[in-house]
Write a structure and sequence with these properties.
This protein is an alpha/beta fold and about 425 residues long. Helices cover about 30% and strands about 20% of the residues.
């Protein structure tokens, strides 16, 4: 069955507006407060779960904790984004217990902070996992949520708050005395610690007595599963109970973030210079330790066999129909694709793993490395067809994209590319 089609000639670009940053103030004013989640009839295939193991998700009016944005025309000097996907964010009502409207109200609040500064945090995908988990814990415990990420530089340089402002109390928390702060490290590699398994029965009021609780974490699937089992979940967060984890990640990240102007402009240039009305095919190919990032680790499952991925991508070589975007942690992969696909493009920026820096300080601006990572992930989230290899970075991009349509995985142990859905990514890749 032929599932690929080029853009209609009359459409300049079909992109997801929220993923590329709804950076104009008027858009905030145009958000419509729906009492239930709506799936647009024109995009009925845009569902999260399509699998024999997990039933297809059908949304109804019983779940009223969403706001929907769709079909906005967003301008950056020129109207370029003709959106055609549902945008999902949490409702104001869902956030009311943790919102701070004014800086002077900060001293009266309790906080949960996701922190990434000098300690091990992981790459961008690990950090986004920790942000999602920390935000959910903040909602569960009625603590105002703050992101304090300064490694390798301030996150706010490139991405700002969207529907929930996580920056208002940042200055205040820097004035709080150490005796009013508790700090918790739950960065996991190959195994989980007991904090996550104890969540269903945890009395957070007794465990977390300080005004500020700081979380260092990179776990999300295990935490989301156990939060759904918490004894207070029906009262505190009933909207989460019947949600798939990909939906939760999509909701949280789109509620929290919108790219700054520079990031929007870079996305605009990539799109304007390369799409020309064609179907956007993307692939993220994670290699692990290689000459481009020698400080990275070897992948536990082994490196992907790139020739299998290249063979799959050959079906998209027609330059009249397809534009091929490649994101990778390897310059060799970039070079191979650019040499063999005339319709290929990439960001053409230095590759940096934001937590495996080693001597990179001597060779490049590490803040630019973070910017590049965010830019690449945002671009992947806009794709009409997306192929990912096993990585948190690519998986989060797929969740941000929010569609199982034209989604493909490469699985190293069987050396195959196959069609899948968002929910099955976790089943196959088994992330914490």
């Amino acid at each position: 069955m032929h599932i690929y089609k080029a853009f209609p000639s009359e459409t300049f670009f079909k992109l997801v507006a929220i993923s590329i940053g709804v950076a104009v103030t008027c858009l905030m004013c145009n958000i419509v407060d729906y009492s239930f989640f709506i799936t647009l009839p024109r995009r009925t295939k845009d569902k999260f779960a399509k699998t024999d193991k997990i039933p297809e998700k059908v949304f109804s009016g019983r779940n009223n904790n969403f706001e929907l944005q769709s079909s906005y025309l967003v301008s950056l000097n020129n109207p370029i984004y003709d959106t055609n996907r549902d945008i999902r964010i949490l409702r104001k009502e869902t956030l009311k217990n943790i919102v701070v409207e004014h800086e002077q109200d900060c001293p009266d609040k309790q906080f949960l902070i996701y922190k990434c500064s000098t300690q091990l945090c992981g790459g961008l995908g690990d950090r986004e996992r920790g942000i999602v988990s920390s935000f959910l814990l903040a909602l569960l415990t009625n603590r105002t949520f703050v992101i304090y990420m300064t490694k390798p530089c301030e996150l706010e340089n490139f991405i700002g708050p969207f529907f929930y402002n996580w920056t208002i109390c940042k200055k205040y928390i820097e004035t709080v005395q150490p005796e009013n702060i508790s700090e918790h490290y739950h960065i996991c590699g190959q195994r989980l610690d007991s904090f996550y398994t104890n969540i269903p029965n945890m009395n957070f009021k007794e465990v977390w007595t300080h005004q500020i609780v700081i979380m260092h974490t990179n776990v999300y699937n295990h935490l989301m599963n156990n939060i759904k089992l918490h004894k207070d979940i029906q009262r505190q967060m009933n909207w989460i109970i019947n949600m798939t984890n990909p939906e939760i990640v999509h909701l949280v990240l789109h509620t929290l973030f919108k790219p700054r102007q520079r990031l929007n402009e870079q996305l605009f240039e990539l799109v304007k210079n390369n799409l020309n009305g064609r179907h956007l095919v993307c692939s993220h190919i994670r290699i692990g330790k290689n000459p481009s990032i020698p400080g990275d680790l070897n992948l536990s499952e082994g490196k992907p066999k790139t020739q299998t991925i290249y063979s799959f991508l050959k079906r998209f070589k027609n330059p009249q129909k397809y534009a091929l975007y490649i994101a990778s942690d390897s310059n060799e992969v970039r070079h191979d694709i650019m040499s063999n696909f005339k319709n290929a493009f990439n960001v053409n920026r230095t590759i940096v793993h934001v937590d495996r820096l080693k001597n990179v300080y001597k060779t490049t601006n590490v803040c630019e490395g973070l910017f590049t990572a965010i830019l690449e992930q945002q671009m992947l989230s806009l794709c009409d067809t997306l192929l990912i290899t096993r990585s948190n970075f690519g998986t989060i991009a797929a969740y941000m994209r929010g569609s199982s349509e034209n989604l493909f995985l490469y699985q190293t142990d069987i050396d195959q590319v196959f069609s899948t859905n968002l929910t099955n990514i976790q089943i196959i890749y088994r992330f914490f």
